[in-house]
Amino acid sequence: MKKFLNGSLFLIMAITCCGQLFAQDNKKDKIKDLVATQSYVFKAQTALPMSGRTRQLTSEYEVKVAKDSVITYLPYFGRAYTAPLDPSKGGIQFTSRKFDYTVNNGKKGGWNIQISPKDADDVRQMVLMLSEDGYGTLQVSSNNRQPIMFNGYITEREPRKQK
């Protein structure tokens, strides 16, 4: 009876471990597919300005990436060299349809993704350093502001709704 219990316990542990490994491989494959198809959303959780303190973000801030567009809705904390004429245009908010998108392999796995919008007024470049698990750091460089970084993760983009 004792051998049966030990054998059953071993079998349950082996199945659990294999299931976890399989789930991790599935997640890495899913992240790899999202990057390859250029269809994902970066969800920002933390803002790291060049000056000032780190801020936990409590609202939904994100960058939606697709083959034909990049839609950015992020906050900004830091020094701006020129103020926007429209006060409602605070933060980093733009939609770009003309942009360069480059993906390079990271040193320890993962990817370095560079997005250079050509039709955004202020943002010069965004660099997303992404791990195989989907967690990453986004650095935004602007023409009229200090750079800012965001920590977060990527997730699958919701399908567009047909009208």
UniProtKB/TrEMBL annotation:
InterPro entries linked: DUF4251 (IPR025347)
Keyword terms of this UniProt record: Signal
Pfam family, one: DUF4251
Signal peptide: 1-23
This protein's name: DUF4251 domain-containing protein
Natural source organism: Chitinophaga rupis
